Amino acid sequence: MSAPILRVENVAKRFVTATGTVEALAETSIEVREGEFVAVIGPSGCGKSTLFNIIGGLDSADGGRVLVEGKPIAGSHRDIGMVFQEESTFPWRTVVENVAFPLEVAGMGRRAREEKAMRFVRLVGLDGFERRYPAELSGGMRQRTALARTLCAEPRILLMDEPFAALDEQTRMLLGEKLIEICQALKQTTLLITHNLSEAVQLSDRVLVMSFRPGRIKRTVAIDLPRPRTSDVIASERFASYLGTIWEDLKAEAAKGLAALETARRAPAGR
Predict the structure, then answer these.
(1) Which residues pair with 39 in a beta bridge?
(2) What are phi and psi of 44, to 5 degrees?
């Protein structure tokens, strides 16, 4: 097998709060190979977003390191692009202007960057809407615009932190199918954070299940299902079996998260 394009080695993170030090991530290690789609799932507060922020260079680790093609990196990296849950399109720019933004920052000429941006507008299925502004688009279309903008910079590794969380279930599934189509066309290496078990199984080659805080990889589940993952595949017993397996690993960790939340809520009253 080829060497991993992304390697996370023993990354750990602590936060100092008013009530003490919180260990967000225990020593966590991940390997991802080129073209692989990996989902990361875990209870709220397990450090998923912290892990992604460290990989993407938005935060620093207290221990361990991140390597791209065997070379340690620090801070943001040109080979890593990120898409977030929050609305991130620029309301004063049209779709094609939003998508072309990283090319403009890089100094590419207007005609060249618009031509390249249009390739990615078409790739995400927004041709015909390229001159529309975000206010004229649905939530799903705005997320496709944000995805196209990130992909336009041609990152080798795509990090997606709950990109469809604010969307209804039908739109999530349709965009999931579109995302897989895009990633396969580009041979795009992708890591996805999600709370949605069905989404994780629908999209991924592997699902990494994280423990409650301090977060660590509790289990890796390889998803051996045919692609495309049609409605027949999603309705199959094998698909349901994967959901059951992941939930068995996840539910104990989710219970720990709920217990910790309840303890935190009661703490002020007990003082």
Answers:
(1) 192, 207
(2) -60, 135
